[in-house]
Amino acid sequence: MSELFEKALAATKTSGRYELRGTVTDVRGLVIEGTGPFVPVGARVYIHSGKRQIPAQVVGFRKDKILVMPFADTQGVSSGTEITASASSSEVVVSERYLGRVINALGDPIDGGAPIIGGDLTPLFRDPPNPVTRSRIKQYFDLGVRAMNSFLTVGVGQRVGIMAGSGVGKSTLLGMIARHSKSDINVIGLVGERGREVREFIERDLGPEGLKRSVVVVATGNESSLLRIRAAFLATAFAEYFRDQGKKVVLMLDSVTRLAMAQREIGLAIG
C-alpha cells in the first residue's frame, strides 16, 4: 500500500496544475510550428500523434506561432496534431535513491533496475551564483590521482577542463577520479557519447566501486540535441541538490564540446 501511495505522490509532484492546448501547423526539419500552447521558452510540451505522446520543448516564437523541438522523431506528426503543455515542466525529481543508477535526460532509469519512486522537486534551470557572495577557493581537494594532486592541484569549488584528442584516456581519468577522489557523491553527465562507449565507461572505467556513489545521466549522440542539452542541466541539478545537503560533490561532464555542438544545432534549426 505504501508503494502505491509513493507512486501517486510522485505523480502529483510532476503533474501540471492546468493544461493548455494548440495544434501543429508546420514541420520544418527539427522544428515544429504550432498555434499554441503559449508557454515560456524552455517549457515541456507533448505532441499527441495517434497513440504516441512525443515529449518536446518550446525553443522560441515566430509572430503568432510557437516553435517546438521534439525529444524523439516526428514520425506520424501532421498538420492539426494536438500539442499540450504542463505548468510544472521546468522542475525535476531528485533524491539519494538515484545513487548507483544510470538514467536518461528525462530522469528515467535505463540500467534495467527497478523504477525510482518519490523524491524532492528542484528546478532544472537555476540562476548562476552571485560572483560577489560565492565562496572563495581556499580548501584543497584530493582527486585521488597522485600525479594531478602533485602538479595540477585543485581546490573545492574549482572548475577544471580536461582537453585532449580522441582515445588518449580522458574517460579513464574521469573514472579514476570518480573511484578514488575524496568526494561524497559523483554526478556524471555523458553527453553525446557513442552508445558502446557508455557501457564501456560504466563497466570498465567507473566500475562497481565508483558507480555505487554516483548518479550517471546519459544522452547518447544518436539522441536529439535537446536531450543532450537537458542531460547536462539534469546532471547539474542533481549536483546542486546534493551540494545543498552539505555533501562534497564532483560534477563531471563528458563532453562540453558535444554539448556546444548540440546548442549550435538548435541555433541553426530555429534561425
Topology record:
Layout lengths: L1 H13 L4 E10 L2 E4 L9 E6 L2 E11 L2 E6 L11 E5 L4 E4 L6 E4 L15 E4 L16 E2 L4 H6 L2 E2 L14 H11 L4 E7 L3 H17 L2 E6 L5 H20 L4 E6 L1 H15 L1
Keywords: ATP-binding, Nucleotide-binding, Translocase, Transport
Protein name: Flagellum-specific ATP synthase FliI
Pfam family, one: ATP-synt_ab_N
Description:
- There is one protein chain.
- The protein is an alpha+beta fold.
- It has two domains: 70 residues, Elongation Factor Tu (Ef-tu), domain 3 (Beta Barrel), CATH 2.40.30.20; 180 residues, Rossmann fold, CATH 3.40.50.
- Helices cover 30% and strands 28% of the residues.
- The strands form four sheets. It has a six-stranded antiparallel β-barrel with strand order 1-2-5-4-3-6. A four-stranded parallel beta sheet has the order 8-13-12-14, sandwiched between helices.
Specify the number of helices: 6
Number of strands: 14
In whole angstroms, the N-to-C terminal distance is 51 Å
Helix content: 25-40%
- Overall 3D form: globular
Largest sheet: 6 strands, antiparallel, barrel
Strand order of the largest sheet: 1-2-5-4-3-6
Strand content: 25-35%
Mean pLDDT: 89
Domain ATPase F1/V1/A1 complex alpha/beta subunit N-terminal: 25-84
Domain ATPase F1/V1/A1 complex alpha/beta subunit nucleotide-binding: 144-271
Keywords: ATP-binding, Nucleotide-binding, Translocase, Transport
Protein name: Flagellum-specific ATP synthase FliI
